[in-house]
Amino acid sequence: MQAKRMNIGIAGLGIMGFNAAAKLRKHGFVVRGYDISPHTAERAAKEGVSLVESLEDMAAISELVLIFVPGPKETEDVITGEKGLMRHARQGLVIVNMSAVNPDVNIRMGKMLADIGVGIIDAPVLGRPSGVGKWAFPVGGNRNHVDAAMPALTALGGSQDNVFHVGPLGDGNKLKLLNNMMFGAINACAAEIMALAKYMGLSQKLLLDVAVAANAGTVSNLYQEIGTRIAESHYDKPTFTVDMLIKDNHLCLEMARQHGVPMIVGNAVDSLNRLASLHGLGAEDNASMWKMVAASWHQKP
């Protein structure tokens, strides 16, 4: 299927959905977006994204719909809500849920959609918003549905090598939640170490610069991003908020409990995340968590 002839809908025009829409348009796809927030939709429209008035309209004209929403409830609202995609989806439509949700949500949606001839795969994004075009996707679902979505996924990932068909519907989100628990652990450790450095009178920037210069084993792209935000006190325009991290890490813990597995580090990370939110940092970038650690030691950030 030629990219320029594929009609793609984007449900959710936040930072991830907007960046995806822009990249797909550059690749010649016909892209139309929708967001429940008028402000978010208007902002996307000003940047050139064509809008539809409803999810029903999107379902009626799209061959592929990509969903970028915060979590499980929003996913179900978009698909099965009173004005959701199911109401007017035509047979052959494939829905790609790119949001981080518990695997059971996609499996349940898949059973309902199959009854009306609509496919769904889970293909959550591994990568930061600015990395669009080089994102990686663990994908769960029917092979035919994955193939139908492959042109779009390849455009967003840069290559089919960045698209990993990991198993049946739900498996993509399993891998995503595991990955984001690792994210949470790195963030929690960075928060505590950066707080301790300042507590002892050391420069947080110097701590980061030395590690980067040495190409130390502790250095990762994520640690560099977190450390740079902390050193520069740059928490506005969050890439990933504390509350988003709470949601993803909680879903991972729930998944582990369903398998009878107690997570030690995971539960500690969850506690730190929730404390940060209680300290009023929920809407700030995840890097801001160090301020909660510092405050718990009666230290001014």
- How much of the sequence is in beta strands? 5-15%
What radius of gyration results from the CA coordinates? 20 Å
Helicity level: 40-55%
For the residues shown, what is the average pLDDT? 93
State the low-pLDDT regions, or none.
Answer: none
Global structural class = alpha/beta
Number of domains: 2
The major β-sheet equals:
6 strands, parallel
Name of the level-1 CATH class of the largest domain = Alpha Beta
Based on DSSP secondary structure assignment, what is the total number of beta strands? 8
CATH superfamily of the largest domain: NAD(P)-binding Rossmann-like Domain
> Based on the structure given, which CATH architecture of the largest domain is correct?
3-Layer(aba) Sandwich
What letter string, H or E per element, gives the SSE order?
EHEHEHEHEHEEHEHHHHHH
- What name is given to the CATH topology of the largest domain? Rossmann fold
Widest sheet: strand ordering:
3-2-1-4-5-6
The number of distinct helices, counting runs of at least 4 residues, comes to 12
Distance between the termini: 54 Å
Taken from the alpha-carbon principal axes, the silhouette is: globular
